From TrEMBL:
It catalyses: adenosine + ATP = AMP + ADP + H(+). Belongs to the carbohydrate kinase PfkB family. GO terms for molecular function: adenosine kinase activity; ATP binding. This is Adenosine kinase. Binds 3 Mg(2+) ions per subunit. Its main location: nucleus. ATP dependent phosphorylation of adenosine and other related nucleoside analogs to monophosphate derivatives. It comes from Temnothorax curvispinosus. Residues 36-342 form the Carbohydrate kinase PfkB domain.
């Protein structure tokens, strides 16, 4: 998986991510606020009708901060942080025509992303309320416009060009719920042009309830990411008859793959436990740097940050070994901040 020598390392447009853009609206609140909206601490839910006023209330009364969110967008922003050069990563997803999408775009662009949103008039921009009570966090996501992404967006000449110039393409499993057709188009393009196509399992429920589109994308996947609960859910849904995570990683790496020029790589994170790498028929464990309990602020986006660190090294032609170590380092930094945020320049040493 070496870097194409005909292009400059860290050139613009090298990495493309497609996913569900959400504006994270984060605030410190009290338990009364949670009770008012019938929410629990340390829980994640999809917004119902009764939660709709919550977002404006956070902004008006609780001095909320805005963070560009959504799993793939987080990953692309972290990759850009490491790369320290604008527009190496391009990001696509669907937003509404409203003040939220403007805030979202401004934040993402400030982080160096080349943002190519599709705009819809049907729904408002997706938002995720991050409700903080002490060390506990409760999430309430309203996907809204993110659900409206359509294949027409990637057919536009200016966007098709960005897909053409990308060498590495990354999607989240969450995007399987939105536009499987777009995933197939991009996956086939990657295969036909010998590009690296990567996917994240993203959530256990996707392995079960979106098994069909997931398995349709799977033969194209060169590198697969997931955590231990997602790997277990995948093994169960696909009758791998394994509970040992090392064996699950190995079996996933050996599943059908269309591009036989390289074997599939599978990376399974396990929180504070070792990261598992299944590659070329063997499993390697990478110890995780333990962050002291009192320094942990927010573990929500650790997985997104891990992949961001990994991809930043991969697209520079670094070894998989370095990619994983950078992913571990990135996750350790992000869990010490609120949301997927960071400061200064990264000082990762491979």
């Amino acid at each position: 998986m070496s870097q194409d020598s005909s292009v400059g390392i860290k050139r613009e447009g090298l990495l493309l991510g497609i996913g569900n853009p959400l504006l994270d609206i984060s605030a410190n609140i009290d338990h009364e606020f949670l009770q008012k909206y019938d929410m629990k601490p340390n829980n994640a839910i999809l917004a119902e009708e009764k939660h709709k006023p919550l977002y404006e209330e956070l902004i008006d009364l609780y001095n909320a901060s805005f963070i560009a969110g959504g799993s793939v967008q987080n990953t692309m922003r972290v990759a850009q942080w490491f790369l320290q050069k604008p527009k190496v990563a391009t990001y696509m997803g669907c937003v509404g025509r409203d003040k939220y999408s403007k805030i979202l775009e401004d934040k993402a662009v400030a982080d160096g992303l080349n943002v190519r949103y599709q705009y819809t008039d049907q729904e408002p921009t997706g938002t995720c309320a991050v409700l903080i009570t002490g060390k506990e966090r409760s999430l309430c996501a309203n996907l809204a416009a993110a659900n409206c992404f359509s294949p027409s967006h990637i057919e536009k000449p200016e966007n098709k060009h960005l897909i053409d110039i990308a060498k590495y393409i990354y999607i989240s499993g969450f995007f399987l719920t939105v536009s499987p057709e777009s995933i197939q188009t991009v996956a086939k393009h990657a295969h036909e042009n010998d590009k690296i196509f990567m996917m994240n399992l993203s959530a256990p429920f996707l392995c079960e309830f979106f098994q069909k589109p997931m398995l349709a994308a799977f033969p194209y996947v060169d590198i697969l990411f997931g955590n231990e609960t997602e790997a277990e859910a995948f093994a169960k849904a696909n009758n791998l008859n394994e509970t040992d995570k090392r064996q699950i990683a190995l079996k996933i790496s050996e599943m059908e793959k269309i591009n036989d020029k390289r074997k599939r790589i599978v990376v399974i994170t396990q929180g504070a436990e070792a990261v598992l790498l299944a590659k070329d028929g063997t499993v390697t464990e990478y110890p995780v740097v333990k962050v002291p309990e009192e320094k942990i602020v927010d573990t929500n986006t650790a997985g997104d940050a891990f992949v961001g660190g990994f991809l930043a090294q991969l697209i520079q032609g670094k070894s998989i070994d370095t990619c994983i170590k950078c992913g571990i380092w990135a996750a350790a930094q992000i869990v010490q901040t609120s949301g997927c945020t960071y400061e200064g320049k990264p000082n990762f040493q491979s």
